[in-house]
Amino acid sequence: MRSGSMQYVIIGNSITSVGCIESIRKHDTTGAITVIGEENHPIYARPLISYLLQGKTDEQKMTYRDEEFYQKHGVQVLTGRRVEKIEVEGQLLRLDDGSSMQYDKLLIATGSLPFIPPMKNLEEVEHRHTFLSLSDAKELEAELQPSSRVLIIGAGLIGLKCAEGILERVQSVTVVDLADRILSSILDEEGSARVQTHLEQIGIRFHLGDSVCEFCGQEALLTSGKVVGFDILVLAVGVKPNIALAKDAGLAVNKGILIDQACRTSNPHIWAGGDCSEGWELLSGERRNLALLPNAYMQGETAGYSMAENEQRFENAIAMNAIGFFGLHIITAGIYQGEDLCFATEKGYKRLFIKDDHLVGCILIGDQVARGGIYTNLIRSRTDLRTLDFAMISEQPALMAFAQKVRSEQLGRAQ
Amino acid sequence: MKKIYVNEQWCLACHLCEYYCAYANSGLSDMVQALKDKPLHPRIQVEQRGTVSFAVNCRHCSEPLCLKSCIAGAITEKDGLIVIDQDKCVGCYSCIMACPYGALMPSESGVMQKCELCATNSHGLPVCVQGCPNQAIVYEER
Amino acid sequence: MKADESKCVNCHRCVSLCPTRALKIVKTDHTFKENANWKGEVIQDIYRQAESGGVLLASMGTPKDYPVYWDKMLVNASQVTNPSIDPLREPMETRTYLGQKESVIKRDANGKIITKTAPQLKLEIPIMFSAMSYGSISYNAHKSLALAAQELGIYYNTGEGGLHEDFYQYGKNTIVQVASGRFGVHPGYLNAGAAIEIKMGQGAKPGIGGHLPGSKIGEDISKTRMIPLHSDAISPAPHHDIYSIEDLRQLVFALKEATAYTKPIIVKVAAVHNISAIASGIARSGADIIAIDGFRGGTGAAPARTRDNVGIPIELALASVDERLRQEGIRGNVSLVVGGSIRSSSDVLKAIALGADAVYVATSALIALGCHLCRTCHSGKCNWGIATQNPELVKRLNPEVGSERLVNLITAWNHELKEMMGGMGINSIEALRGNRLMLRGIGLHETELNILGIKHAGA
């Protein structure tokens, strides 16, 4: 156990911070932890904002940890406060209210910011929203009318979740994306097509391989020449790591803040994790910005262990997504390289990617998602496929495919 | 902590654990009423192939990937027991994506469910274990 | 859901497992044109034999309606003139020792008693599991018995199937059997157990041998029995080296030699007409214990006619043997163990009061393991994983579950035994043994009462 004098400071008040706080407290019950968050909310489950609009959750249920979380973990929280500058020399933070704060160990978990490509006359669009935070969602919700025509720029995870969240509450939802298919970052062509068909059947309109040339009042002129009328505009093209503070402090950055497997930055007193960071990805062997919730938690957790001087390495980060639209569920993981195996049914689709006797990626849609974690685990654990009955497991994820000895270890030993 | 463990050697693939589980979590005191003419949604599932069979349910991992992956903060750990708050769950399938054992599944209502060792229902002790005729699943400290 | 009535053997597997108790088995209303002489089963047997031309095989003990003398004896209790004992508050001894007892006290020159007792079996409860071979019952059934015997401080018996190498660890609670086929007998085997039993006969099939078909001689069993794979295991009807008590004595002492006189030798015989004379001979053969198996005893497979018609009830055999050995003054030479349908603790109590030192149980033990007496052991398809070698069926009996149930059963019987003994004002097996004053007959005629050596109730 460490002495009580340790000062842990966390910039950002979201998933990464929770992971960090929980792991620090497993080893250091006395050090002071301070969280500085710009938003005026307690920690909430950010990806739930679309479910909030859909009415599947409410603000109360959206809290990511219970009310006593901070108190139970002995955390001091400053909400609505922004860090203006990190002075690495003096291990000092300058805050927006003019105050300053000393840190022994600092975690930067500033997340991401919406990425907005330049579009002509965008500033003139009156009802214009991004869709990343609870405030974004509430502002958007305040404008929704049954008669609203909504235009969403971006057919990625954020744009489509937004579309799902509001579809029932507005007259129409139209999605425009530069890519020629939806969810192009996580699906293959067949997968995109299936999900698109499903969404179109429910009533979402798409203009793909297209982009906004210019906004003209309540109309968007597309490159293809089409004109889309709208009342509300949602910008969901993507996100970019929020690295301004780190960059300013002189930390090594690329697209995100560069971190090692213990989530340490180039400065020995500073750690980073979550959407703002770029850590080692297992399959590529390169540093990647993986703006995904499980990754955010685990990086925060890893940083926390390291900060509390109980270093553990997070070495099996991979891209993985679970997402669903109107009852059609999708699980994807890893990279889409190597040989592939395809299984298609009327209600589902599966594609597995195998490279050098290892599973490196999977796409599971519809009735193929059940027990999908067995596949992601094969990817994350770099299991040699020759050690199991791959014909069987490729057909259906099952523990039966493992050698009896492995299985008895899995099911018979305390995990 | 006491957990459920599987003795594959003794599993007879009778699937009784599934029935007992569905009953235990039905909230009803009569098994017939709980299960008759209804689709079964057990939190424990038997895998079977030829003469080999075994039941799979939540391992209550000490490093629970489901908890770390839950986007709603609906999965929590208390004294080693991993529980899911179905009220908070929005059914996003992140836990299904994460669980290496395939031990979570959607409930009848679409939100996720998992074995909570009957600690969160009226039975208190795992009913599947009590109902297993051959001690192929046991509830013990290991 | 459909069931094939013709295949149902009424094993109750389905009934027992149904979580909502929604199943019951009903007797078919199909009948033959029966009469008091030509009963349905008699007719059925004739059809079966007319079809097969073979000996009818049957399993478990005879189902025929012969008198059960246990049920015709009543037990005494203390009232007023002698105090009864509460086993929950006062010591109650059910430990007993089997083996030759010294008849004279010897002293050395200084007058100190020379204690040189013959080897004994120490039983915490006067009940043992009688012989069932690995082959007739499954590995898991055998293991259940071994585990239970170990926990209870009693013994189980290998039968004539040898001892599987996995079970040598339970040797302290094992009786190893030497039968007419000599299957699996070697020096290591003889020395592995706590006692050796020479099987001369079995209650369910006195006078005949045994036959385990080659189909059941799998790898494990072939190794354990020391016979070739898939060869029939035939136990001859007699031991071909024993045609007299003198011959028997030779085998008894051969076995004692082989085990350096450290283990008691049991001679097991079926209860037949001249059982008391036979027992007298055995008691003089050097054997330490005589085990007598009554004609209601069970079996995995026996010719039905033999099982149902040969031998005599154990109660009468026991009473006459005990009486004969006493009269001849050689009762102390041997201990008496009786078996052949001991169904409850009161049967145990009555057996000891009639003169037994301990009892053998098998059918009751199998029932505790799940057997529902469907009496089709000889089919090899035991649904409870007991009388089968089919791995899928054997798997149905987890020895952990099985042994626990056996321990429960025998422990329960022991409680009851103590309670009834206490009621009589008796606090040890010693004081109960042969105490026929504690028994009264009910509805028995003079000859039966004379043989049993008891008075009629009221007398």
TrEMBL record, chain B:
Query: Domain 4Fe-4S ferredoxin-type: where?
Result: 2-31, 80-109
The reply on keyword Iron is: yes
Q: Name one Pfam family in it.
A: Fer4_11
Is-annotated flag, keyword Metal-binding?
yes
List the molecular function annotations (GO) for this entry: 4 iron, 4 sulfur cluster binding; metal ion binding
What PROSITE patterns does the entry give? 4FE4S_FER_1, 4FE4S_FER_2
Q: What UniProt keywords are attached to this protein's entry?
A: 4Fe-4S, Electron transport, Iron, Iron-sulfur, Metal-binding, Repeat, Transport
**PANTHER family per the record?**
ANAEROBIC DIMETHYL SULFOXIDE REDUCTASE CHAIN B-RELATED, PROTEIN NRFC
The entry's protein name is 4Fe-4S ferredoxin
